[in-house]
From TrEMBL:
Bilayer topology term: Multi-pass membrane protein
Source domain of life: Bacteria
Stretches that traverse the bilayer: 22-39, 51-69, 76-97, 103-127, 134-152, 172-198, 229-251, 257-275, 282-302, 308-327
Organism: Sinorhizobium medicae
Localization in the cell: Cell membrane
Keyword Transmembrane helix: yes
Protein's recorded name: ABC transporter permease
Length: 331
């Protein structure tokens, strides 16, 4: 998957390759090498497959976040939205299983996609029609979505119906030719996202809206429409991640997706997408998601730093990435 996404990065600017575009992949290779030196178990096939599979959820959501951030927006609600979509999906499947049996799973997945679209549309419309800063809007919906899932679970856990667990289990734990299904789904999402961002008029309008709003409007770009669609894409990506995530734990809780917004934004930023908008890097975003998961895995396998400091390390990474962006922008 890493090699496949690496070829996508420079597509936006033609065949010219810049060192800045390769930086996330070089950093990923360096961290992987460091992990191999720290602990021999790191390079075992089982551990590497586990790392890539666990990174799939953040990578899928981060693809959507690349569109939002490239268009000049921001979404802090993705972790809470993930929990809310997961809860609604499980409730739908549990309600439908007496009548539909195992078919409740694809129907529940459809419900998740609809809810994801509606959540993304809600964020997008409030930002564009309400003309409120994306930070404020998504900070508010972050609290709303988290409160809803806490209410639906009564502060506890909302498990999937026992009769569905075995049928749904392969979506996370199954594989095709040794490649886990979440990784394959991530690859499909990445390819679709790259095509949409780099090869379509909409993709060019996304970066145009994020680069300079007034120029984009003068050029005939419907900035509000472009940004609203970006938030809808974000909602769809959250729903896809939820569909892959449910069989992993088999339940939704008030802590599902907690702090994922930090991981998603960090993955996007260290992948080369400008936080101020105007430039998106789908391949770099996936590399960023892998970097975060590899770092967390190395911390668990080694005794150098406590695994409880993973969030602190991720926070430090995003600050360093922002300083790097500011430094390169001022050169």
């Amino acid at each position: 998957m890493i090699a496949a996404t690496a070829t996508i990065v420079p597509a936006e600017e033609g065949t010219r390759i810049r060192w800045a575009d390769l930086a996330p992949f070089i950093a990923l290779a360096a961290i992987v090498l460091f992990g191999a030196l720290v602990n021999d178990n790191f390079v075992s096939s089982a551990n590497l497959i586990n790392v890539v599979t666990r990174s799939a959820f953040v990578a899928i959501i981060a693809v959507g976040a690349t569109f939002v951030i490239s268009s000049g927006g921001l979404d802090l609600s993705v972790g809470s939205m993930m929990a809310f979509v997961t809860g609604i999906m499980i409730m739908a499947m549990n309600h439908l299983v007496p009548s539909f049996g195992d078919w409740a799973i694809p129907v529940g997945a459809g419900v998740a996609l609809v809810v994801g679209v509606m959540c993304g549309l809600l964020n997008g419309l409030i930002v564009t029609i309400g003309r409120i800063e994306p930070f404020i809007v998504t900070l508010g919906t972050m609290g709303i979505f988290r409160a809803f899932i806490t209410f639906l679970t009564d502060g506890g856990s909302l498990p999937i119906d026992r009769s569905l667990r075995e049928a749904y289990r392969p979506v996370y734990f199954g594989s095709l030719f040794g490649i886990p299904y979440p990784v394959l789904i991530t690859f499909v999402v990445v390819m679709l996202g790259a095509f949409l961002l780099y090869k379509t008029k909409y993709g060019r309008r996304v970066t145009s809206a994020g680069s300079n709003v007034e120029v984009a409007r003068f050029s005939g770009v419907n900035v509000s429409g472009v940004r609203t669609v970006a938030y809808v894409i974000q909602g769809v990506c959250v729903a896809v991640a939820a569909i892959c995530y449910v069989p992993r734990l088999g339940a939704a809780t008030p802590t599902t997706g907690q702090l994922w917004e930090l991981q998603v934004i960090t993955a996007v930023v260290i992948g080369g997408t400008l936080l101020r908008g105007g430039r998106g890097r789908i391949g770099g975003t996936v590399a960023g998601a892998l970097i975060l998961e590899v770092i967390a895995n190395v911390m668990v396998l080694s005794d150098m730093v406590s695994e409880y400091l993973v969030a602190a390390v991720q926070g430090t990474i995003i600050i360093i990435a922002m300083l790097a962006h500011r430094f390169t922008a001022n050169r």
